[in-house]
Design goal:
This protein is an alpha/beta fold. It is built from 15 helices and nine strands. The chain has helices at residues 27-38, 51-58, 66-72, 82-93, 109-112, 133-141, 160-170, 183-198, 200-215, 220-249, 252-265, 268-282, 285-295, 299-309, 312-322; strands at residues 4-5, 19-23, 42-46, 63-64, 75-78, 102-105, 123-129, 148-154, 178-180. Helix 1 runs parallel beside helix 6 (133-141), helix 3 crosses helix 4 (82-93) and helix 8 packs antiparallel against helix 12 (268-282). The structure holds NADPH dihydro-nicotinamide-adenine-dinucleotide phosphate and the ligand CC[C@](O)(C(C)=O)C(=O)O. The active site is at residue 107.
């Protein structure tokens, strides 16, 4: 059984009195910064001028340019979009990354694919909550924590593991458990999960189901409830108690579909394609395509984003959710 670290083995002490610079104040940045501050640690924010800067100041943080924040900090947590990290690192972080500091990430993309190469005299690590940023904050405020991973790429100070675990505690991850991994494993599994299953796979499955029902003449509102809304409630059961908890709660008729029909939807073809996607992640083809797409100012990404906004499921969903006053819409 793999070892899980909890608060008792992930003491905050080594980060007490140190300055943590959270670089970026988006989904992960705002949640990690606020959790660390509420855990009693000193946090400053590094940003460019813009929307996030105003939000971080309104949330009561001292905000600096990325270079200034790096200069002032002992621990630098890079929470910028992956595709921008290489440039910002080279221009604004590397010049101030002096001996003994910690360079940390929540995803290993740039280190693993060689876009950032840190000097030998700093610690390099990742501490990654396994969940979306807004939930990292929400769950912490509720008294829990989103579980996390940590990995050490470089231990220049001899304290890197202790520091990583302290950071994991600060963001609340050690409340529910932190697992050790490597940059390679985190990067490849995270990319595979989000591309093939959680984001890519799940949204295509939802749209395919919705389109099938609507094309057959059923009301789009019914199709929305069936294929998108209820998915969250089913996944909640899996999250709380695995597939068996879902099976306990659903009807036997639904369970028949779970056993017999699901495998007609996720076929050997799909599994073959999943393996192909994983191979492209492992051999760097996916990283190259994503880096090149960004260098070309995202022509394909932008075109598909526009088409997706127009999808009927988005319009019907917005109307229905407008009637659900209890929903958290932040
Ligand atoms: N989203 C998630 O839940 C998860 C993300 N991660 C990882 O966390 C990291 C951050 O992702 P995420 O939180 O989604 O990112 P977001 O896109 O939500 O936020 C990015 C932040 O970086 C700022 N920023 C962008 N460009 C620059 C720049 N050139 N200089 C200074 N600041 C800049 C943005 O500010 P501005 O308002 O100025 O644009 C914004 O505050 C990534 O490595 C990602 O893989 C890991 C696990 C989950
Ligand atoms: C599933 C998407 C994710 O990998 C995450 C929330 O962990 C991301 O990078 O946003």
């Amino acid at each position: 059984m793999v070892k899980m670290y909890y608060e008792n083995e992930a003491k905050l002490d080594i980060l007490k009195g140190k300055t943590i610079a959270v670089i970026g104040y988006g989904s992960q940045g705002h949640s990690q910064a606020q959790n660390l501050r509420d855990s009693g640690l000193k946090v400053i924010i590094g940003l460019r001028q813009g929307k996030s800067w105003e939000v971080a100041e309104a949330d009561g943080f001292e905000v600096y340019s990325v270079g200034e924040a790096t200069q002032k900090a002992d621990f630098i947590q890079i929470l910028l979009p992956d595709e921008r990290q290489g440039k910002v690192y080279a221009e604004e972080i590397a010049p101030y990354l002096t001996e003994g500091k910690t360079l940390s990430f929540s995803h290993g993309f740039n280190i693993h694919f060689g876009q950032i190469v840190a000097p030998k005299n700093v610690d390099v690590m990742l501490v990654a909550p396994k969940g979306p940023g807004h939930l990292v904050r929400r769950v912490y405020v509720e008294g829990g924590g989103v579980p996390g991973l940590f990995a050490i790429q470089q231990d220049a100070t001899g304290n890197a593991r202790e520091i990583a675990l302290a950071y994991a505690n600060g963001i609340g991850a050690a409340r529910s458990g932190v697992l050790e991994t490597s940059f390679r494993e985190e990067t490849e599994t995270d990319l595979f999960g989000e591309q093939a299953v959680l984001c890519g796979g799940a949204s295509e499955l939802v749209k395919a189901g919705f389109e099938t029902l609507v094309e057959a003449g059923y009301q789009p509102e019914i199709a929305y409830f069936e294929c998108l809304h209820e998915l969250k409630l089913i996944v909640d059961l899996m999250y709380e108690g695995g597939l068996s908890r879902m099976r306990y709660s659903i009807s036997d008729t639904a369970q028949y579909g779970d056993f017999m029909i699901g495998r007609r939807i996720i076929t050997d073809e799909t599994r073959k394609e999943m393996k192909k996607v994983l191979k492209e992640i492992q051999d760097g083809e996916f990283a190259r395509n994503w880096i090149l797409e960004n260098q070309a100012n995202r022509p394909v990404f932008n075109a598909i984003a526009r088409q997706e906004e127009e999808h009927q499921i988005e319009k019907v969903g917005a109307e229905l959710r407008g009637m659900m006053s209890w929903l958290n819409k932040k």
